[in-house]
Structure to design on (898 residues):
């Protein structure tokens, strides 16, 4: 029989898939002997069974009852006991952390009878009624589906009547009245009463947590964080401990190091006389964790010791939740902490230096996505402009956008292409859509461990919290700065998550210290620690990686930048970009040519220009391979717009004028060359077979550029790539012409000029016949953009705007196949082509030059598929280098803080 419930003493962190992250880590802390309130975990298997059938799995209720009985026996109290009730918390806990996205219910077991017993046992009537109102509020909203805003409004109304600034100033009578108000709201909204049976409260709370796995915000968060939908959540049931028992009690959140910067030291927030949800919600401003030493030195000392134990045990940054109940410290949760990109690199270096992890583990704990964030620009604050206000720098970075005050508005305006900053007094889980849509999050209340801070940090979103100087009025859609400046909705503001400053208008941007280092090798003042950590990670990646990293570059400037960023060659040089601008007229002449002589004249004019381009790129990449793709797009793309030409000709005729001869010629050519689906028309290798002299001109320019560089003492390594080949015979015909022209160039130059000839694999037929094509090709390069289009039957320009959002929402694919390789479809074609190509030609060099070459997840796939190199835009070269190194690691522990 399947077992659904485990005591904390029966588990450990290795059981995270079954007990969830929270449950497995509570069990691990119990195993370590830390002070953890006893409890048990209902497994993710039970959740999955419930979500599949809609009912409790057989035997689960009996197991819960048995574990509850053991908990009651150990405590010497029964759940909901009238004179001294045992109370429970019921918390969600999926395999991967989803902060605030699912449900928690505290104080299970209280009712109209036991609340008096709790008051007598605790000696505090106010505490008892505060706990009861929390239960009714949380149960009503979470389990019974009442709009949480109705409870909040009732609380606000009462505070206004009593002149209380917050709930701490409400007395026991006020809170008892509030409980009755809450119960009336529940009865009015649901038609049923708040349940008085503790057993019913517990059962319904457990099922509500299961159901919250499929809540809208949980699904949205999983999509954002790439967490599978089929995992389910575990449920931790635990004896309550109370931080709201008075000044000698409280709750807090702590990190073993600063999750924003990685700096060592005790870090976190504490809130006296409060429960844990008060800390993370941001409804009251916390005090720094260091203040706890003054308030309760013994608890502070114990907490420090437990934090050190956990960091050394997990060998990583740990995120900890704790409660102090009348001077007694209790540990309520730990997990590997979410961190910013800056902190990830700093921590990897520091923990390696301390001997807690190996250099390879350090590499596994950083990411290309994080490195990309560190390359983003920062604000240039060297001017005299003063900030509107300052808050807590919760998640670093620089963001500019229009201020908006509601999540739905952020989503709507961002969908229209506008950059926005979400401004709230504090955020809650329902604000997640707006947080995702916004460039930054700004809150008036809350600490560095509030909901806004934790979620933003996990997403890499700029965030400033606790800007108490601001008066945020979400109803009026504006905030007021301390100097009286009023910022209305739609006003552009700049948010600096690294310093906590908020500025009016758009602050200019400058390169980040990491970008300056990559560009120049200079660290910049005060940036040495982070830059050193990045340099060490890249150095380790370069040492262990098998995949080479090249760049897609079409100009000498891009080639030089790519080389500075660590590229070991060019994997794609697109020659069509060399035909734009003033040269477009020469291409028009070639297309309009009415005789071989006229065509040859146009090609001869293009030849020296192409040769100059190639020579500059070969010089910038001297000693490294440069893969040059012959002309790929349809020729009509180099002609004026068909509609504009037709309008000009028609307008002239309507005026009774004779249209310009050039316009008439061009319109006739455009009409002649018009295609219904040009992506599948006359392009790529087909151009070389149909347009006389085009291939010869380009190859001659390449060959002469190679000869020129050889005469200059260089080491040019040009490779010629034929695009869109679908059959080996196509490549054979073009290959013969390439070799003929190169032989002519060699004879004229008096020196051998040889260039390997290969092809792009960008059609399913090419992948499926790769063995035959390899007989004609010296290298393959996967053009995964077109291969994705032709495999899926997508026209990218059309489908991304039309229905991709719906496909992502419905889970047809977890990410756009144009951003991350489709392993099942396109990936399978890649695997076939690699296997058959190498079977036919064992020394076949194989790379990829589509956008996927710089995507972290795709780089790992290409490593596993056995490719020799990836090629990407120059700015993604450092990312690809890092991920190529991480892909080479085997069974090395990463910091999975999801």
């Amino acid at each position: 029989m399947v077992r659904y419930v485990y005591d904390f003493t029966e588990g450990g962190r290795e059981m995270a898939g079954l007990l969830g992250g929270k449950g497995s880590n509570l069990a691990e802390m119990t195993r370590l002997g830390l002070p953890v309130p006893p409890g048990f975990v209902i497994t993710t298997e039970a959740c999955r069974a419930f979500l599949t059938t809609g009912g409790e799995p057989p035997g689960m209720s009996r197991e819960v009852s048995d574990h509850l009985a053991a908990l009651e026996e150990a405590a010497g109290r029964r759940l909901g006991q009238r004179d001294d009730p045992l109370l429970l918390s019921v918390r969600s806990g999926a395999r991967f952390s989803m902060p605030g996205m699912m449900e928690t219910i505290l104080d299970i077991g209280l009712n109209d009878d036991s609340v008096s017993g709790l008051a007598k046992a605790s000696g505090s009537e106010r505490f008892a009624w505060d706990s009861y109102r929390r239960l009714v509020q949380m149960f009503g909203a979470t389990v019974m589906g009442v709009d949480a805003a109705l409870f909040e409004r009732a609380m606000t109304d009462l505070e206004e009547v009593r002149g209380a600034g917050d709930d701490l100033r409400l007395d026991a009578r006020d809170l008892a009245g509030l409980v009755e108000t809450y119960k009336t709201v529940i009865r009015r909204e649901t038609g049923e009463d708040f349940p008085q049976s503790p057993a019913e409260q517990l059962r319904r709370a457990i099922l509500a947590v299961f159901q919250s796995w499929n809540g809208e915000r949980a699904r949205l968060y999983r999509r954002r964080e790439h967490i599978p939908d089929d995992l389910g959540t575990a449920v931790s049931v635990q004896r309550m401990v109370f931080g709201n028992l008075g000044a000698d009690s409280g709750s807090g959140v702590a990190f073993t190091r600063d999750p924003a910067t990685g700096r060592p030291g005790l870090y976190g927030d504490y809130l006296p006389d409060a429960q844990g949800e008060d800390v993370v919600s941001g409804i009251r401003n916390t005090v720094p964790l260091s203040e706890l030493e003054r308030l309760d030195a013994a608890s502070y000392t114990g907490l420090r010791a437990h934090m050190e134990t956990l960091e050394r045990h997990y060998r990583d940054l740990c995120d900890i939740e704790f409660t102090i109940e009348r001077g007694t410290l209790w540990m309520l949760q730990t997990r590997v902490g979410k961190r910013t990109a800056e902190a990830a690199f700093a921590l990897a270096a520091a923990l390696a230096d301390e001997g807690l992890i190996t250099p390879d583990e350090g590499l596994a704990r950083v990411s290309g996505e994080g490195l990309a964030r560190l390359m983003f620009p920062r604000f240039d604050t060297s001017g005299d402009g003063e900030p509107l206000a300052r808050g807590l720098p919760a998640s670093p970075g620089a963001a500019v956008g229009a201020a908006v005050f509601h999540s739905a508005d952020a989503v709507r305006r961002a969908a229209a292409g506008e950059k926005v900053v979400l401004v709230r007094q504090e955020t809650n889980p329902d604000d997640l859509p707006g947080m995702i849509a916004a460039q930054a999050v700004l809150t008036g209340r809350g600490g560095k461990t509030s909901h806004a801070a934790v979620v933003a940090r996990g997403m890499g979103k700029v965030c400033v919290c606790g800007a108490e100087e601001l008066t945020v009025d979400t109803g009026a859609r504006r905030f007021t700065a301390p100097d009286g400046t009023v910022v209305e909705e739609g006003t552009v503001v700049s948010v600096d998550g690294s310093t906590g400053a908020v500025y009016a208008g758009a602050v200019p941007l400058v390169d980040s210290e990491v970008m300056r280092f990559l560009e120049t090798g200079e660290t910049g003042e005060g940036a040495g620690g982070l830059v050193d950590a990045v340099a060490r990670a890249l150095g380790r990646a370069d040492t262990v990686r098998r995949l080479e990293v090249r760049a897609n570059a079409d100009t000498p400037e891009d080639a030089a930048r790519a080389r500075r960023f660590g590229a070991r060659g060019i994997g794609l040089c697109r020659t069509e970009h060399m035909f734009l601008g003033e040269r477009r007229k020469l291409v028009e002449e070639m297309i309009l040519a009415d005789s071989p002589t006229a065509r040859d004249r146009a090609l001869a004019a293009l030849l020296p220009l192409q040769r100059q381009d190639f020579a500059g790129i070969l010089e910038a990449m001297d000693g490294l391979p440069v893969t040059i793709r012959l002309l790929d797009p349809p020729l009509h793309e180099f002609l004026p717009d068909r509609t504009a030409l037709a309008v000009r000709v028609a307008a002239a005729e309507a005026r009774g004028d004779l249209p310009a001869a050039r316009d008439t010629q061009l319109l006739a050519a455009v009409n002649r060359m018009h295609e219904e689906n040009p992506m599948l028309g006359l392009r790529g290798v087909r151009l070389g077979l149909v347009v006389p002299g085009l291939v010869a001109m380009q190859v001659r320019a390449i060959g002469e550029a190679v000869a020129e560089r050889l005469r200059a003492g260089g080491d040019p390594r040009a490779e010629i790539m034929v695009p869109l080949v679908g059959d080996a015979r196509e490549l054979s015909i073009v290959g013969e012409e390439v070799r003929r022209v190169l032989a002519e160039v060699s004879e004229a130059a008096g020196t051998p000029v040889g260039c390997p000839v290969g092809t792009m694999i960008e059609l399913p037929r090419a992948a499926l016949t790769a063995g035959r094509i390899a007989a004609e090709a010296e290298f393959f390069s996967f053009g995964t953009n077109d291969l994705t289009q032709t495999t899926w039957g997508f026209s990218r320009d059309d489908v991304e705007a039309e229905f991709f959002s719906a496909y992502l929402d419905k889970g047809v694919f977890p990410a756009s196949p144009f951003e991350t390789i489709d392993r099942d479809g396109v990936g399978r074609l890649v695997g076939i082509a690699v296997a058959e190509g190498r079977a036919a030609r064992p020394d076949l060099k194989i790379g990829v030059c589509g956008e996927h070459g710089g995507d972290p997840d795709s780089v790992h796939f290409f490593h596993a598929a056995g490719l020799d190199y990836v090629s990407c835009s120059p700015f993604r070269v450092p990312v690809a280098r890092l991920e190529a190194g991480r892909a080479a690691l085997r069974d090395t522990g990463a910091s999975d803080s999801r």
Remarks:
- The mean pLDDT is 90.
- The first strand starts at residue 5 and ends at 7.
